[in-house]
Design a protein that fits this description.
The chain is an all-beta fold and 63 residues long. The chain has a single domain, classed as OB fold (Dihydrolipoamide Acetyltransferase, E2P). Helices cover 0% and strands 60% of the residues. It is built from no helices and 5 strands. The protein has a 5-stranded mixed beta barrel with strand order 1-2-3-5-4. A hairpin with a 2-residue loop joins strand 4 and strand 5.
Length: 63
């Protein structure tokens, strides 16, 4: 699992971005990929999965 920080998350629209702690890359996250409720600046653990426009964060849970 990757470790990261939620940089942005919009609960109403159900998407956001997570910044990976190791690579500093940002990954898209959709509400369908969440295990826990998340908010901005939360520390999270996540897996990566190939999506239509690149890698997406999935199985996202609070660290």
């Amino acid at each position: 699992m990757n470790k990261g920080t939620v940089k942005f998350y919009n609960n109403l629209k159900g998407f956001g971005f997570i910044k990976d702690d190791d690579s500093s890359k940002e990954f898209y996250v959709n509400a369908s990929g969440l295990k826990d409720n998340i908010g901005e600046n939360d520390k999270v653990l996540f897996d990566l999965e190939e999506g239509k426009k690149g890698l997406n964060a999935v199985n996202v849970k609070l660290a």
